[in-house]
Structure formats: C-alpha cells, structure tokens
Amino acid sequence: MQERQVQLVARNSITWMVLIIFGLLAEPISAVEPILWREHTQAQFSKGESEGVSLTREGVVLLSPAVLQVADVKEQFVWDLAVDTEGRLLIATGNSGKVFELVEGADPRLLLDSPEVAIFSIAVSRNGTVFAGSSPDGLIYRIQPGKDAETFCRTGDEHVWSLVVDGDALYASTGGSAGRVLKIADDGTKEEVFRSPDPNLVCLIKASDGSLYAGSDQSGFVYRKKPGRRLEILYDASENEIHALAIGMDGLLYAGAMSGRAAIGGQREKPSQSKGNGPAPSLQKSILYVIRPSGATVRRWEVPDPMLLSIAEIQSGEVTVLTGDNGGLYNVESDGSATLLTRFPDAQPWTFATLPGGDLWLGTAGSGKIYKLAQSFKSEGTLMSVAQDFSIVSNWGKLGWKGEVTEGTSITFQTRTGNSKTPDETWSPWSSHLTDAAGSQILSPPGRFIQYRAHLKSSNSKVTPSFREVRLAGLQENVAPQILTVGVNAMGGESNGAPKGNDKTKNRHNGAGGGKGNWKVSWAAGDVNNDRLVYDLYYRGRDEKQWKLLKEDLTKSSFLWNVESAPEGTMQVKVVASDRLSNP
After folding, report:
1. Distances (CA, A) of 528 to 32, 37, 486, 531, 556
2. pTM, full prediction
3. How many alpha carbons fall within 13 Å on the CB side of residue 579?
4. Domains along the chain?
5. Half-sphere exposure (CA, 13 Å, Cβ side) for 481?
6. Residue 11: what are its φ and ψ, rounded to 5°?
7. pLDDT digits 0-9 by tens, 72-97
8. Which whole-number Å values give the CA distances from 526 to 1, 24, 210, in the listed order?
C-alpha cells in the first residue's frame, strides 16, 4: 500500500497552487499469486541448448540416435561423399586433394593422391568408375575399377563444385571467374551447356526428363536447362546462395538456400552486401524451398542457422536436411514441421550420404572424420533451458514434468538461479537431481532468473525415456505498489500537478460528470507484481490533523470531485493505493 498527497487552493481563490507531497507508506503483504513457467512445445524447447537429444515436431524430447565414428581419413576436410552400387563410400577431401574408399569394418583405402588442394566433388557410375572434381586447377579425375587414377578433363575453370553421372555422360558445375555447367563425353572432351553471370554454380542435379538444375552462390538463382530449350531462371531466392538441390519421388525440386556463405577453410567468403533487390538477409537463416515444374515455389521450412549444407529425400515428401554452423540434422515433413534428430557439438558435419541399407553417414569439415547415424539411441543426453525471468527475486516451489520412463531409463532435472540475464559465476551451482515427475521441491536459492537442465539416460540402446512438458512455480516477493504522479485539474480552469485536463479519460473517471465547481484528481500507479490495484481518496484542510475519506475502493485512476460543499481555504488530497484484491 502506498499514498501520495497533493495540496490544493480552495475553489474561490483567484490563484491556483499545487504542492505535491511525497508521503509514501509501504505495507508489504506476504500473499502473492504463484507464477507458473511451463514449456511444452518444440519451439520452446529449441530455444535451449541440447546435446544428445532429439526434439520432435510434436514437442517431445527424447534421446537422439547414436552417432558413431567409423573412420578418420586424417585430412582436414571431408567435402563430398558418394555411394556406389556395392555400398562403398567414396570420400572427397582437402586440403591435400585426396580420395578415399571406405567399407564398413575396414580402414579407409586411398584411391587418389592429387597435387590439388581440394577435391570438392565426387560421383560414381553404375560400373564403379569414380570421378573427382578438384580445386584450384579445375581438374576432373577418373578412377576406373582396377586401374590407376588419371586426369580425365581440364575444365578451364578454377573449381569443380558438383558432378553428376548420367549414363555415358558426365556433367559438372564449375566456378572461379564464371559459373558454368559442362558436359564431358567418355573421351574427356567437354561442351559448355550454359554459363551464369555468377562466379560459381555450387550444386547440380539432373531430372529424369533430362532437365539440368543448378544453384548459384551470389544471386541465389535456381537455373533450369531443358533439353533443346533456352536457359531459364526457375526461381530467384532472397538468400544469397542455393547450396543444395534434390529431386523428390514426385518430381518436385527441393532447394536449400542460405544467407550465410560456405567459408570453412577459407575457400569462400561470406558476402558483405545484399543482392541489390532489397535489404541484406539475416546471416542466421536458411530456407528449404519446394519448387514445382511451373516455377511455383513454397517456402517449406526455415531454420535459424546460417548454412544449409546438404539435403536428400528419404521418402515421399520427407527430407533430411543438414545445417551448420550449429551442426543440426533434421527430418522435415511435407507440412513444414521438422524433427531435430541430433546436433554435433564436437564436430562440424559438412555432407552426408545414405547407404543402401538406410544408414546415414556424415563427413566433417575441420577434422576429416566419418560418422554413422546408428539405428540405436544414445545412452544419455541433456537439454538446458533458457534462463527464465521472473521479474523480481522469487522463492521457488516445485518442478514437475510429463513423460514416459520405462525400465532401464531415467529422467532427472537440475536447477540453478541468479540475478543476471546470462548465467555466470554469480549464479548458484546446479542443484542436486530432482527425480519426482509429479513435482520435486526446487532446491536452488531465491533469485530473479531460473534455469533447468534435463538429464535423460538409458541402459538399453533400443529404448529411450521422453518428456513433453516441464513446469515449475515461483513465488515473487510482494512489493508494495507505487503512486508515480498525482495531479488536479479544475474542470475548465488551470492545472494543479501532473495530468492535464485535455486527457481523453475524462468520461471514464470515477465520480460525477464535469461542470462548474468540479476538480478532477488524477494519478498514475504501478505494481511490479502486476497485482490489481484499488485506491482510497482522502482530503483535509491545511491546518487539520485528521484525514477525511472522500471515496474508497476506486478502480480507475481519476475522480471528479464537486467542491461546492468543501470548506474554504487550502486543502490537501491524499491517494492511497492497495494491492489487497490480489493479496486477500
């Protein structure tokens, strides 16, 4: 409760005067309403930091698939992967320009040791012939079964970004000074199919009708070249780069666009300006587009990562997407919802390939390691929430959750608290583990901010615990309301104090309508607990000791007082605010 007074000169005085008296009376009340913090959606959970857990589109948190290291090629980068008909994995690497072959259970076998810095692209034909595109000399190497590697084609460009095998023909998208698509015959002779004003065409794919699609790295164009037709721009994305393309089982084209630019290893730099047709897009956004043959395009999915690196349709309408820099692997559904399968906190995955048995293998940039996404679950994982702001220092109630725990699995929670938005050394340490899903008393000390960390564990790789809701309660320290301003207006006359008589609330105040002999008393109040406030209005003469009640239980912040019956002379008005409605 708090009061503020204002002193007035009586109605018959010639000169109006006002003196605001800061008479503050605080009466803290112990009762306040608890505040419930509840998280139960994928969007809420995804704001936190996850390791070893999946976040489904339905908002369920569970252990992610196990990620197993299957090989280390001892190179700095794995730029591209391809799989042949026998299930061999072909690995293009840098910065020593090597190609490896990998069979599960065996060590990588070196197929090509070129003088180039990087092998950016790799493709394999039905008969097992491997083609590898290099940088910085723009060479294409051929490795036929049982034969040594050979220089197959000199493109005349600096980089060979992508390769596509189609029967006896090989197609390449290149870059450097100009982005081109080349067709290379079986004897290594090349033919320019088309060129782009962009310096690089970084991805290439061929449809069953013979159409070629390519994505550029500055204009964000998706090009299409139909057999016997002129080159056309099928789609102009607002993002700078179309980095990945895939064709679905129903003939739809998937295009992965990113606002950031591939920059690992210093091979390419991020752009510093927009495309010129609008403001520069955010560097923290990538888009998955679905493009129909007519060119009609739908933005299916957006992710706040600067790079979208690789895409593949795993079944009709369902697409696997790999992003960076945060290293996320997602399954995107036809309705645009997505499941975060896993993140890679200790590696930067760059590309993936799916083996005939359905296993997904990933190559990394920065380490040269090959990982396999297993058909089993990790043994443990964590999800750490954002820090929740309770506005003022609060005491804590219980934390509970909804989920499923089977034999051999467990879910526990920890909390920590502090008074800064970002957790630091001034925060409390993580509490001991809370184990009761129905509700465990939070053990962390009072604070303004609170954060939880969920721990999921399983001793059986075939089963996982899961939860879909977390809730915890905080009880704010009750703080007395504050009256910020008090003022008086003689209706039709001069102003005493704060709000002017020109305000638009004159027909919404407490008391009777305006007119001669009426004063409007107005005030502003606030309450950090967001309690409902009521006001009592008092008055007295300057020389009087006792306050007289003018009006009580006012819910508006103004009152019209007819002073015709008030005593002559100077009077004082007092406003008392109370939060008793919220704190009975």
Report:
1. 12, 18, 19, 8, 18
2. 0.76
3. 25
4. 2-30+479-578 (no CATH), 35-61+382-476 (2.60.120)
5. 27
6. -65, -25
7. 999 999 999 999 988 999 999 999 99
8. 11, 14, 70
